[in-house]
């Protein structure tokens, strides 16, 4: 999986990127010492941040952008005291609301006797032989012996 012919073979390049980028930031800091914002660049956070993102649809990302703009630009500019006191609490509440709703939905659906959605593409390829063992000599009822 991770070798040169594997699906994730390019993943090893990120070790090099992770080792080189702090050196580039250090060089930039030496070349431009008057630029204070260079000290604020944190490569582990920049490279590790996307790993915290869930595999979500585009609607989710747009809602994150909308809430971020409203909270960090509009509310911060007009109501700094409120933002300083309650912005992280708002973030916690939004995260907790999603988790609570997922738990509530799961519990109410399972109490009704529904333990998952039976979509067309969920059950293999609808070939009964796809569930058979392929080991030589394995004998299972309804499957051919190889």
UniProtKB/TrEMBL annotation:
BP GO terms, sorted: protein transport
Family as reported in the entry's similarity comment: Belongs to the oligopeptide OPT transporter (TC 2.A.67.1) family.
InterPro entries from the UniProt entry: Oligpept_transpt, OPT
Organism classification: Eukaryota, Viridiplantae, Streptophyta, Embryophyta, Tracheophyta
The protein's name: Uncharacterized protein
GO function terms (MF aspect): oligopeptide transmembrane transporter activity
Localization of this protein: Membrane
Membrane topology: Multi-pass membrane protein
GO terms under cellular component: membrane
Pfam families the UniProt entry points to: OPT
Keywords, in A-Z order: Membrane, Peptide transport, Protein transport, Transmembrane, Transmembrane helix, Transport
